[in-house]
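Entry 14. Structure prediction run on the chain below.
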Amino acid sequence: MRVTRHYRQKQFCILIGSICAVLALWSIQSYALSDDEIKNVLLKNSSYFVVNNIITDGLRTVGWGIVKLLVYLCNAAMVLYQKSFGMIDFTTWSVTEKWLKTFTLVVRAIVALGLTYMGITLIVGRKQKPPIFKAVLLFGFTTVALVEGMTMLNQGIKAMCLEIVGNPTSNAADIVSQNMVDLVYIDNKKGIATFDSTNTDYMASCHYSIKNLDAIDITEVINFKSKLLSEASRGQDGVFGKMLMFQGNLSDDQNNIGNWTLADIYAGFGWNDGEDADFLNTFYYRYHIDFMSTYISLMATTLVYFFMAYKVVRIFI
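Output returned:
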């Protein structure tokens, strides 16, 4: 009797374990993309899935070096513009600005009193006026009004310049950010299966602010076993583990999926532990950057700031 009960308990445990294993296997399979889905992602975004090689590594390194040089020049132009703009008048001095904020009511009272006195003098005043009182009051009114007026004018000019050239503290970094795409970031944020480089609204949400350009390795590749990838994309059967191979015009389907077949990404010569990039691997590059657009935007921004600084300096010459 005890043997039979023990045997049934054993069978029951085996049954429960089998059911759990089937459910786990089913859940894993449900995450995996079909071959056609992988082909569609790779075809639609072919310019973003670039297989690495030694020549491309060299070109990317040189191109990225030029980007960092242009960013340096752009930042220098921004600083020059800010310094030259700060020389417009003494009201931009921090001490003066602090004083004006502290005595705003007093300044306005003096201006109002001066205007009232001048109005009375010009309209109904007598011909003879106390010269000392008049001189002191006019001096105070003129000085305060000049500072207050220059401050208001200075704020207006600042607003106009910011509208023209934008915020000078972030433009250089934003230009690079807006022209760069991180496939790992897209995979974790949206899922690489949803990647659609033809959708402008979708791509607008795929950028993030780059704080330090030196922290980015433009030749970095994506190992399909990397823990940085989402569970659905990781592995040889995921998007990052496959590459397209053209096999001829064998199909007339709309997306030409039938003309392509999938081949495995080669992990390279060595032991692939999931985080390395062994010799002769065919992994995809992690970062995609539009170098030409970045160059043009950075150079144009740099020229704008240099010419704005030049125009500001010309005011005093």
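Residues 22-30 have pLDDT under 50 and may be disordered.
Filed with the rest of this week's runs.
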